[in-house]
């Protein structure tokens, strides 16, 4: 193999593999479980460990950013090119809870390498994916002979992602000046599978709503009053039943306003993915697919907005029977949103739709939780193409495109910074996020190193 | 006043008033709460007290009938006319729980007379109404000069009515020979109000059903899978929403098969009742009426079958939100039935209707509880006219007709004995059944004595 930049990166990565894995294992040993107060000090230790490691990597600026909860780590490495674009990498250093008795084969906080995989809580979500950036930037310098990256590089690694990022948006707003970037790279997702490297182009947004209907002042006897007063549980069921039309479309007027429709190009690329319905149904623990007519399963979960009941309740739910007309009933709805939809507009539409359908004699309370915006980077965006090229160089194969059906704090960065969000996730579904025996495939982890080693040059060129 | 039978009855009743009330008070002092095991012995004491009292009244046969739960009291007084019709009176000697701290002004088991009312648990429901039969039959003999009643009189006073009569049907079936009667008189209901004496002509039946729908094998993430798998809570809501048509009629095919429609005569008599919607809504704790188009509120609760949700539940119902597609959802439905409807047919119809509407990929479980039949005695039935005449003689005013919207064990007697069931209830809505400060109006209680004093002669004539 000639001494091309790609082969230099590969060789550099191989040479530093052992030390890199030893370092990652050391980080995984810190049980930075943000959801468990007894690990508060471990989360802080994790932040300090990462900050020191980033200094050692060469970042001239590393800071611990306090929040009312767990601390985040910020690092910055200015480019030697003053015209270089600014790139902000997002990840998190906290992890999900884990205990041996949850079904782990080994101690979740004592990482082991077995069959080419490193097992340990956080190996994939998200320490492994944050960590490949450290060796990646060194490989980038080694391959290009530069003394500083081709982009102005910033890292923000938060400590509360597994607890719902309660202070993340406030942190981003407060530090917006320091975080300002031309593009955000989120390293906290995954790719299709081991053999199908993909780039995620967006996540759905989320609007959540609770509707409570009140009928009689207290539960009343269904013999004495049944058939002659409004039943709030029935009224609620009618509301929920009216959420969708017979084609599975959300029937709330105005709900689809502004929706960015899938392009034929993106549909064609989705269709190239090796989707197997039986496998997907197993993952979904479901017996059948369902949903909006005219769309494939992947299109439904990635690119179409939805309305789902997350919970419903009212009246007597215990054993046996109790012949009452319930005093009240409640439904928790969540709406996944796609690019082009405005959460505030959706909330207003849902409220108007619901209020118009509540029968006489039934009082209501409709409350919305803070919404999460959708985010989407168009396929032809130069930064997205740069990510795909960097990944293609590392994997040596065609890169396809996915989206995520879920919603995440990345959208806050898009919102606050006004920058497009790209997803560079080098993890696979079998990595077991949040479950026992979480692992990372070492080969893929090193592809992550290589991808980021190529990425800064690709982005510098693409965004010039 | 001349020495007519009616005046003899009135005089006899007045003469025995004090002893009668003292006796009732003694019975009310026995806290025969069938729902509370610590009162098991009190329930037995109550049965023994009543049995002894009935012997003292003159019933030649009095027996304690054991059940797997609380004992019932049976008494029999053969007529001196061998051709006389056989009448079975039904009541119960157990009472609802009661404690001073529930809001009673005085000890619930230490009866007091205040402002022409006797306060105490069971005063109206149902000891008072059982007890007026004791003085009533003596007044009947005194007024007619007979040594035995004009009808062959049987009394069955159960001890588990306030606990749902779990052994009543089995008892009735086992003792069907002893209980055999031409007509059943139930003294466990009420009349319209203090100024409007009424006879109840029927009760609705009851079929209860639980429908459980299962979607994913466990709750799954609504971001990853929302919009692409069936949601059992949504499916359940659609089922419930389809229960009624836009006119408020139950939309289950076959549900109305056999329904005995209201006659114009009965509608006209219902319309004579001094119904006040505002007052009724207060009782119903509701802000509006609702229901089947084309029927008044009283017609809806008394004479029309219904489908009501008693409880619904599925997914996350706690505080905040949890973005899941629930694994399952459940609804408890109850159907009130009217004369002519067959509970088994309704159950089959509901099952077929539900099963036809469950979407692919959703499994279901539908279970029915034992049903209660409706009962109705036509207005022109001679026994019903006899009850109305007896009541009219006691009250000196026109007797109107009502029904009960609820369901009760009386239907079991209709079923098992094949005899029409009539309701002689001399209690008013303000008597506070099941609540604190339960009371009986002494004037009405004595009208009950007079009514039963007239009833046996009226029935003997009517059924000859």
Q: Can you walk through the features of this model?
A:
Chains A, B: Pfam families: M20_dimer, Peptidase_M20. Chains A, B: This is Dipeptidase. Chains A, B: InterPro entries: Cyt/Met_Dipeptidase (IPR051458), Peptidase_M20 (IPR002933), Peptidase_M20_dimer (IPR011650). 2 copies of one chain form a homodimer. Chain A has 464 residues and is α+β, with helices and mostly antiparallel strands. The first copy, chain A, folds into 2 domains: 5-203 and 374-462, Zn peptidases (Aminopeptidase); 205-259 and 305-368, Alpha-Beta Plaits, CATH 3.30.70. The first copy, chain A, is 35% helix and 20% strand. The first copy, chain A, has 15 helices and 18 strands. In chain A, the strands form 5 sheets. A 6-stranded mixed sheet of chain A has the order 1-2-6-3-7-17, with helices on both faces. A 4-stranded antiparallel sheet of chain A has the order 11-13-9-14, with helices on one face. Chains A and B meet through strand 9, strand 10, helix 7, helix 8 and helix 11 of A and strand 9, strand 10, helix 7, helix 8 and helix 11 of B.
Give a short synopsis of this structure.
Two copies of one chain form a homodimer. By secondary structure, chain A is α+β, with helices and mostly antiparallel strands. In chain A, 35% of the residues lie in helices and 20% in strands.
Topology, pairings included?
The structure is a homodimer of 464-residue chains.
Chain A lengths: L4 H11 L1 H12 L11 H18 L3 E5 L6 E6 L8 E7 L19 E3 L2 E3 L7 H18 L7 E7 L9 H7 L1 H4 L3 E4 L11 E6 L1 E10 L5 E2 H4 L6 H10 L22 H9 L4 H7 L13 H7 L2 E10 L8 E2 L2 E10 L5 H13 L7 E6 L6 E2 L5 H14 L4 E5 L5 H8 L3 E3 L15 E3 H21 L2
Parallel strand pairs in A: 3-6, 3-7, 7-17, 8-16
Antiparallel strand pairs in A: 1-2, 2-6, 4-5, 5-18, 8-15, 9-13, 9-14, 10-12, 11-13
Helix pairs in contact in A: 1-4, 1-15, 2-4, 4-15, 5-14, 13-15
